[in-house]
Amino acid sequence: MSDKETDYKVEENNAFFWYWFVNISGVGSVSRKKLLDRFIHPAVLYHAGKREYEDILSPKQCVYLQNSRNTYRINQSMQKLEASGVRFVHWESPEYPRKFRQLFDPPYGIYVKGRLPAEDMPVLGMVGSRAATPYGLHMAQSFAESLALQGIQIVSGLAAGIDAASHRGALRAGGYTLGILGGGIDSMYPRENFSLYMQMYERGGVLSEYNLGVPNSPGLFPLRNRLISGIADGVFVLEAGEKSGSFITIDQALEQGKEVFAMPGRVSDPLSAGCNRLIAEGASLVQCPEDIAGQLLAKYAKSEKKNGKEQVKFAKERAACLLEDPEQQRIYELLDAKNPTSFNELLEKSGYNFVKLQYILLEMEISQYIYQPSQNTYLRKF
């Protein structure tokens, strides 16, 4: 087989290689990142010899990796996923959430049922106690319903209490809501949220970074929480005690530079202690839905105010920076703003090999110099 035929085959199977990469047993996120830093693309690692990665992985992990390279089993697993109505969205997929790319430890693949949030509309994470009071549940549902009516997308963890009430409020308004799970994409915790789960993936979305069959585990919830705050523009906490698990999400939101909102409560109420402390430490005090909507909607309104001339000026300034990277500049000059260019055309015209071109294009997409109007075709921003 020629190099070009091999490159084309790899290009067409990007989903296969990313799916394999994120499902290697016994390899954690730290080792995964080191592997990707060295090999740039999972396709290269898939065909690498043991000596090329044994300094990164333990002997046991090396065995896991070698045993995982089974084309038949991988394809079977992907077919099972597809049959269950789940999409695998990987790092190079056009629909991969832009906000996840900004995380310190982004997932390289996610599992999705339903739709992902629209990227041109604000997203609010809502978190709080599983053992919420009737007042807390009422407020969560009421706020979510009001905010969803104003076009704000609601994301939470599909758990009992505040999470479930927030999802129900958004659904009641006919708005969008996303549930991010702390186990496999097919996991239900608690089981009584099954009907809510079904409504959400039919009318909104459900997401997990874990494949079918992965059980819920307390150790996975902090990892799940970074995705709730990561995909949101701000996080709203209702009824959280001093040691609430919601503070994991809040801490991550603060680290990510997200706005934190909190609903105040009675000083004698243990479930209000955490919210009251957050407000004392600088979180935005929320008394009505407009306290949140005003901030989130204003942020998106400002971004929409840029007229065509401002957009072109911005794009030109960004493009000028490419001059500092001759490889990216070369690719940019081969692209058009109106007529898409395929990956194979770029491969032929640029003279770069498959892996090098993939890396350059990925970097340019992350920097928003180019985008894919359809899979494996590229346009420049202006």
Describe this structure in words.
- The protein has 3 domains: 3-81, no CATH class; 112-304, 3-Layer(aba) Sandwich (Rossmann fold); 308-380, Arc Repressor Mutant, subunit A (Orthogonal Bundle), CATH 1.10.10.10.
- Helix content is 48%, strand content 13%.
- It has 382 residues and is of the alpha/beta class.
- The protein contains 17 helices and 12 strands.
- The model is unreliable at 1-12 (pLDDT under 50).
- Helix 7 runs parallel beside helix 13, helix 8 (162-172) crosses helix 9 (194-203) and helix 10 (221-231) crosses helix 11.
- The strands form 2 sheets. It has a 9-stranded mixed β-sheet, sandwiched between helices. Strands 10-12-11 form a 3-stranded antiparallel β-sheet.
- Strand 7, helix 11 (246-255) and strand 8 (259-262) form a beta-alpha-beta unit.
Question: What are the key terms here?
Answer:
382 residues; alpha/beta; 3-stranded antiparallel sheet; 48% helix
What can be said about this structure in brief?
This protein is of the alpha/beta class and 382 residues long. The chain has 17 helices and twelve strands. A nine-stranded mixed beta sheet has the order 1-2-6-5-4-3-7-8-9, sandwiched between helices. A three-stranded antiparallel beta sheet has the order 10-12-11.
